[in-house]
Structure formats: structure tokens, C-alpha cells
Specification:
Layout: E1 10-20, E2 24-30, E3 39-40, E4 43-45, H1 52-64, E5 74-79, E6 89-99, E7 111-118, H2 129-140
Parallel strand pairs: 1-6
Antiparallel strand pairs: 1-4, 2-3, 2-7, 5-6
Length: 142
């Protein structure tokens, strides 16, 4: 290193794609910027000392009222495109959970609404969450 290199701050997050047995996906309406008022996957920052899987389970409970043990979540992949978040560099590990149709949800924490959406009729999504949903569905079809 020459001493002229700069290092970017990278934030570590986890997101969860929750689908139902009748082809719906859980989305939350964001109550904060960026993308305030848009629909997104439940998720958020990984806390110090926490795994991304544990963070995903915690965020799912906090934002949508769905409780799952971390080991119930299947890893979909890592999403790290440099421009995926307008706030800076965010790297997320995405997980998938399938639940029975009719699983109750309740918006909480930073979400203003939570809703089951048909996978074939999704609204415009925040961030790269449409890509994450596609990857989760492709992985579950294998």
C-alpha cells in the first residue's frame, strides 16, 4: 500500500424473503428514508456480536411480527452491488422462510405497514429487493 488508498465504510445488513405456500411474499412499507413509503423486505443492520441469520430473525419479528428461529432461515445469498443503497455501501445477506398461508403479520418498529403481496403482482420495491426475491424463488425451486 502506498498510503494514498482510501477505505469505504461498509455496513452489514440482513434481509428476509418470507413466502407463503400460496405464492405470496411479505413486504413492509418503509417509514423512513431512503425510499420512505415504498415497499421492501423486512431487514436491517446486523448488531455487534450478532450473526446475519440472527439479525434476519430479529428484524423479521421487529418489523412484521413473524417469529422464526434463526436456524429456520435458509440463506439465499449475499448482495453487495456498490450502488444498491443511496446511503452508501451496504452489504446484505438474504434469507428465505416459507410459512403457511394466512400467517398473521403486524407492522412494527420502522415499518408503517406490512402486507402479503402476490408474487406475480408486486409493487415497485425499494433497493434491489426485487432481485433478492427472484433469487430466493429460484433457489427454492431447485
Amino acid at each position: 500500500m502506498t498510503g494514498t488508498e482510501t477505505f469505504e465504510t461498509i455496513r452489514y445488513t440482513a434481509d428476509v424473503v418470507v413466502t407463503t405456500t400460496d405464492a405470496r411474499v411479505l413486504l413492509i412499507e418503509r417509514g423512513w428514508a431512503p425510499f420512505k413509503g415504498q415497499w421492501a423486505l423486512p431487514g436491517g443492520h446486523v448488531d455487534p456480536g450478532e450473526t446475519s441469520r440472527a439479525a434476519a430473525a430479529r428484524e423479521l419479528a421487529e418489523e412484521a411480527g413473524v417469529h422464526a428461529a434463526p436456524e429456520e432461515l435458509d440463506q439465499v445469498g449475499t448482495f453487495d452491488e456498490p450502488d444498491r443503497d443511496p446511503r452508501g455501501r451496504y452489504v446484505t445477506v438474504a434469507y428465505h422462510l416459507e410459512v403457511v398461508s394466512g400467517t398473521p403479520i403486524e407492522a412494527g418498529d420502522d415499518a408503517t405497514n406490512a402486507r402479503w403481496w402476490p408474487l406475480n403482482a408486486l409493487p415497485e420495491l425499494a433497493f434491489d429487493h426485487a432481485d433478492i426475491i427472484r433469487a430466493a424463488i429460484a433457489a427454492s425451486d431447485r
